[in-house]
Design goal:
The chain has about 80 residues and is mainly α. It has helices at about 5-15, 20-30, 35-45, 50-65.
């Protein structure tokens, strides 16, 4: 049986794999490597505003994908 960490990693990879390459690149560059939108634009060849939209889309996508990982009995009410 896979560990909880393996399960989380698997879900993370699945979520990333479902993103288009330019969206995935913008998301990882911004969130993991803390690149600015201007830096991302230069690296992937798209306008900074498009890169910002890619990152926002990827965040929404990731939030949607993480819901199966949550143990609803342990999440405090908001």
């Amino acid at each position: 049986m896979p560990s909880k960490a393996d399960r989380v990693w698997s879900e993370f990879i699945c979520a990333l794999d479902r993103l288009e390459p330019d969206i995935r690149a913008a998301f990882l560059l911004h969130e993991v490597f803390e690149a600015s939108y201007e830096e991302i634009a230069r690296l992937i060849g798209e306008p900074a505003e498009t890169c910002r939209a890619h990152v926002e889309y990827a965040r929404e996508h990731a939030v949607f994908r993480k819901s199966p990982l949550r143990d609803k009995t342990k999440v405090p009410p908001r």
